[in-house]
Specification:
This protein has 469 residues and is of the alpha+beta class. It has helices spanning 2-19, 35-38, 61-76, 94-111, 135-165, 169-183, 204-216, 301-305, 309-318, 355-363, 394-401, 438-446, 450-463; strands spanning 46-54, 116-122, 126-134, 218-220, 227-229, 239-245, 255-260, 265-267, 270-272, 278-281, 283-286, 291-299, 327-333, 336-346, 349-350, 369-371, 380-390, 404-416, 422-435.
Length: 469
């Protein structure tokens, strides 16, 4: 029994000594850089996509690597341009081709299906991924998707003719643009419809021609009256015009883009017709030009499509294939016409001086204003009535100094000639003349230097009722 205890104690001591021996640390296993990172694989049956994400930039570097790999995969898929495709008709436009191919690749990278992850690799700075896509599987998927897309576009075209029959111009045009939008990924390929099902539309060329013809059917309703614009107004009443189709039916609830052909007239760039085909051009500012100015109108396709991402995606490309001339409407920018009525009396009798009238005319001279002698032609009428009278202090001055004192009062008002409304009214006073007779004192009041300063102040506020610079 003692020997058994001895053996156990020895085992415990030996075990304790063994546990205290230092443990040898293992060197980290070095991850070997795969060949596909430095040398791109070449597989005749597979499309290859390799991309990496930069860890130092932060964010989701793994998603960045995947996105780059799929874009690389899409770039490897060759876009063959069919001689019967829409893209072939503009292939001499290198800039357009480049933009179109980029769009196709981006679209493909968003819609590629059936790819598989072959491998991944990462180090301290980068994360790499390697994808493959079977070429035959891709071709089969693409053919099926193209078939479904053409069927969807055909249904939209059919529906557009139904809307056209029901005189819904906007809905009809929108569906045709949507049809073009869904076909965008295949514009480099031949696309054919069954004309018996699509009201004679055989291909994309017929579709774009149909859209162009529909846009060209919009016309301006000619009117006998011309809108008049005056320069430097505080606000402008909207100018109303009308649009109709060649069928003489109003263009209802359709958005338009507006631009002024002259930079001295600034307008809002968007408008829309109402149920009667009427639309308004809202003017922000007008500078003096004294001539007719035209406004260009173009269909606002982006607003028409609203939030329809499919339709909007095709709008930019569609504009490469359709040509429509801007519609024109006009307005006449004319100077503000003013008639000045001035009466200058001295103790109830005409002075024959016309000095106040001349001062008013000087204050209203400028390229934005036309002074007229014909009251019926005027936009505004300025009435000035100047009259002298014996001042209350005159008797005291005459008794003590044999001097007469006359006071000059000038009443000025501004009227709207058409409505007769008085827009501004003021009185200029505190102007006096001295002389040994009251008549001379009244005439001297008209030559008082103070009159110009007081008149200038009153006319400044009056002018602000007509012009806002």
């Amino acid at each position: 029994m003692k020997w058994l205890n001895y053996i156990v104690c020895v085992c415990i001591v030996l075990s304790s000594c063994k546990s205290k021996q230092p443990v040898a640390t293992q060197a980290p296993v070095e991850v070997k850089v795969p060949n596909w990172v430095s040398s791109r694989p070449n597989n005749g049956f597979k499309f290859v996509g390799i991309g990496f994400g930069d860890k130092s930039k932060g964010g989701n570097y793994q998603m960045e690597a995947k996105k780059n790999a799929l874009y690389d995969l899409a770039s490897e898929i060759k876009v063959d341009i069919s001689s019967n495709s829409v893209l072939y008709t503009v292939q001499n436009n290198n800039n357009f081709n480049e933009n179109f191919n980029s769009l196709i690749k981006l679209s493909n990278s968003d819609n590629i299906e059936g790819y598989t992850l072959v491998d991944s690799y990462e180090n301290e700075k980068q994360y790499w991924v390697y994808y493959q896509l079977d070429k035959q599987e891709y071709a089969n998927r693409k053919a099926e998707k193209k078939k479904q897309t053409i069927s969807k576009a055909a249904n939209l075209i059919v529906a557009s003719f139904y809307d056209e029959k029901n005189k819904d111009f906007s809905s009809s045009l929108k569906k045709r643009i949507q049809a073009f939008g869904v076909l965008t990924p295949y514009l480099s390929e031949e696309i054919n419809f069954d004309p018996a099902q699509t009201n004679g539309v055989k291909n994309v060329f017929d579709l774009t021609s149909l859209i162009q013809t529909q846009l060209q059917s919009i016309t301006v309703v000619q009117t006998k009256t011309v809108n008049i614009l005056r320069p430097y107004q505080a606000m402008y009443a909207p100018m109303t015009y009308s649009l109709e189709l060649k069928s003489k039916t109003p263009l209802q609830n359709f958005p338009m883009l507006v631009s002024s052909d002259d930079d001295k007239v600034n307008v809002n760039d968007k408008t829309s017709t109402n149920y009667n085909g009427e639309f308004q051009v809202k003017v922000n500012s007008v500078e003096p030009i004294n001539q007719f100015v035209s406004f260009s109108l173009n269909p606002d396709i982006n607003t028409l499509m609203g939030t329809d991402s499919v339709g909007l995606a095709g709008v930019t490309l569609l504009k490469q294939f359709i040509q429509t001339s801007s519609l024109k409407v006009q307005a006449n920018v004319t100077n503000i016409s003013i008639f000045i009525s001035s009466v200058e009396n001295n103790l109830g009798k005409p002075t024959g001086l016309n000095s106040i009238e001349m001062f008013i005319k000087q204050r209203f001279s400028g390229q934005e204003i036309r002074l007229t002698d014909r009251k019926e032609e005027a936009d505004y009428i300025i009435e000035s009535l100047a009259e002298t009278q014996k001042d209350v202090s005159s008797d005291v001055l005459e008794k003590n100094y044999e001097i007469q004192l006359a006071a000059l009062l000038i009443n000025i008002q501004l009227k709207n000639r058409i409505t007769g409304e008085v827009l501004y009214k003021t009185q200029v006073s505190d102007i006096y003349g001295y002389a040994n007779t009251l008549e001379k004192a009244g005439l001297n009041a008209y030559s008082n230097p103070k009159i110009n300063a007081r008149l200038a102040e009153s006319l400044f506020f009056l002018k602000r009722k007509i012009l806002v610079y």
